[in-house]
Amino acid sequence: MNWLKQLFTRRRQFDELSEEICAHLDERVEQLVAEGKSRKEAEHAARLEFGNVTLAEEDSRGVWRCGLLEDLITDLRYGLRTLSKNRGFALVAVLTLALGIGANTAVYTVVNGVLLKPLAFPEPERLFVVSFSEMGGPFNTGPSLSDHHYLEFREQDRLFENVASFVAILSNLTGAGDPVQIPVVNVTSEFFAVLRVSPQIGRGFAEEEVKPGKDDVVVLGDRLWRQRFGADPQIVGKRVHLDGVSRTVIGVMPVGFDFPFHADMWTPFTVSIDPHNSFRRPVFGRLKPGFSRQQAQAELETIAQRVPMDREPDGRALVAEVLPLKELLVGDIRESLLVFAGAVAFVLLIACANVANLFLARAAHRGKEIGLRSALGAGRWRLVRQLLVESAIVSLAGGAAGILLANWGVPALMALAPEGKIPRAEMIRVDASVLAFTAGMSVLTAIAFGLAPALQATRWDVREVLSFGSRGATTRGQGMRTALAVSEIALALVLLAGAGLLVKSFLRLRAVNPGFEPANVMVMTVNLPDSVYRTGEQIQAFHSRTLAELSRIPGVDAAAAVNYTPMGGFLIRGDFHLQDGRKLPPGYTVDKPCVSAGYFHAMGIRLLRGREFAISDNETAPGVVVVSQSVARTLWPGEDPLGKRITMEDEPKATDWLTVIGVVEDVRQQGLAKGADPAIYESYLQVARPFFLNHMNFVVKTASATQPIAAAMRSVLRDVDRDQPVQSIATMDAIVAGNTAEPRFQARLLGVFAGLALVLAIVGTYGVLAYSVAQRTREIGVRVALGAQKYNVFGMLLRHALGMAGAGIVMGGAGALVVTRVLAKFLFEVKPGDPQIFALAALTLAVAAVLACFVPARRAMRVDPMIALREE
């Protein structure tokens, strides 16, 4: 600690050193006087012998400990004093950097929480998802395996300690307050062991408890335990009712554990082969110590070659993949976040260029000061270090302000995002890693915008600076300032082009005709548990009674039902057979909605030919279907589809053949960007399988605003069966808006970044032009004195502004053609190189350059020739 003590006693030591050096000088002067010289000659000769006193003091201090630290502290004090004398300059620089650093910190906070932070499990780096992803199929199932593939892999795997599978569902919880739907996860017995997480109360599932008949046990989540069961410490052994089935609680998971997808409850299940389904489920495992992901990938590919599972029955290829477990949660958002991180980095680069321009202009005016310091013995590195310390002060202040902006920006960013789109939201917070990122970014930013001005300022010739003063120095660095302004315009063009592409894409997506009329339509979703509603007849009776009660609500024009609504996120899809024996086109599948009478009218789906379903189309009537327009065109081109017959069964009986009775307009079932789906509609009264009926959406059409009838719809459900909760209730307008929520979020966020970039580019261009006017005041005065008109002066500056804008547009356009290709995945009916968007971005920047030129031009046109010519 001696060095710390010495650090605080340096001032006294410095004074003593100065006194000692002066004593030596005085002693030598006395010697020379004694030798016969005059005192003036003696003082001159002594100083020549001794050399530069200041350098001697610095050399002496340099051999003391903590010399560099003391120099930095000295530079820091000097920098603070200097900046305090130029508060306007310092404030503008700090605010500019605060915008750039704050935006980057906010985005990094989200990226860090979602993508970078590990999962909260022991050794999460050893947890991987095993998947065969389908190439070119109609569904995006994510990383998963079919039941058959899962059993094959589990049998042959040698690198994983254990593997587990799960499926997330919504289930009805009753007997613990009001009926409610909760997220439940059916898991294999190895689930908790693979994650290495044990319940805080009780235990997990035993191997025998996944077998049918012994699987009436559950594990509760801590959140549900506290909210619905009052954190009862004696909960283990008590019964809960899930989907009408009484189950025994055997454990409660720790606080914060809700994997996957914010689960509130876990139930056991076993994977077995069912030839009647093609379900795919996520499968994950924990690698054994000493094995890598690459080895696991190689083994999975080898397993794929041993068993007949490298192709689907319809010929689509399956690709073997081993992915980090985190991909299950963040795979859909990764690319968007990386694009935003790149975009916000552009904003920071523009801010750095802006501040570098400010420092260049300031350094030019400090030319005499720097020249005097150099003449007095300060080396170039010493001067550069001083200027870099001033840059660091500004940058760190900008970083501190940026953190404050990020604390506001992160909630704003999350509010802009579609609900539930950003996973791991609980991990998104400003923590030590974010502060370290901001500090590091502040240091790098200081170097980025401070080094070039420092080197530029210290390369001037001392004699030239001292001879001509500031006016001579200011002629230097103009080229660099212009180059920085051009780079700002180029970077801003890239962001403007990207934002324009996303906005155009969003507007085109929103203008798409979905095939139905969403206005004044309310949708109520209900899931009926198969433990209570076991047969199709029971389910149909529930639906019929509910529809009858809904139609009696005042203000309701029509009430209908469909098992899967358009854009609802789910659908049933498959093939079928034609009566004439013709084969379907390769890979041809259709949506298979089950609907009630009046559905097409309630949804505003146009009937093009034939008739809709009627109440009489029930189980006792001949089977009928309604097909969409694209099905009719594909299967019966140039023919009348009415009366044609199809079947959904592979081995149909006579009663399984269905007659086409109508043709309706195509509906975009999977989303506005997915294209219209071919569909074959069945009457729900003629469908017997509970699987097709237990999930039902009740559609209500009103003549006016739909929101006031939501309470009435809930009341109807309570009257029909008070134990069945509403899964969701929303307007069809909201469902359609939710389908465009992500493109809207992307366009808004990139638009915000582009707006920041545009403002900074305008400020940068204005700064260069304003400085140019100040620098060329004498020249302008001479021109005016010689007869130049005001429009000549304005034209001179306008040419300068448009020249910078033109150069920036050319550079930025070339860069944007390359960079905007990363947006191709997010665009709808818009190409990355859209000429209209690029032209609009270029025009915007040209207009911005003209606006930035206006104030400096007015100032130039007001220059008084007499005053300008008298200036030094």
* Rg calc: 38 Å
Could you tell me how far the N terminus lies from the C terminus, measured between alpha carbons in angstroms?
Answer: 55 Å
Largest sheet: 7 strands, mixed
* Secondary structure: helix percent: 40-55%
Strand content: 5-15%
In terms of per-residue confidence, which ranges show pLDDT below 50 for 5 or more consecutive residues? 309-315, 468-474
- How much is the average pLDDT? 82
Shape: elongated
Overall SS class: alpha+beta
How many individual helices?
A: 27
How many strands appear in the DSSP assignment? Answer: 25
Give a nutshell description of this structure:
With 872 residues, this protein is an alpha+beta fold. The chain contains 27 helices and 25 strands.
Describe the structure.
Helix content is 51%, strand content 14%. The protein has 872 residues and is α+β, with helices and mostly antiparallel strands. Among the domains are: 2-65; 124-325, no CATH class; 529-723, no CATH class. The strands form five sheets. Strands 16, 18, 19, 20, 21, 22 and 23 form a seven-stranded mixed beta sheet that branches. The chain has a six-stranded mixed β-barrel with strand order 3-4-9-6-8-7. The radius of gyration is 38 Å and the shape is elongated. Residues 309-315 and 468-474 have low confidence and may be disordered.
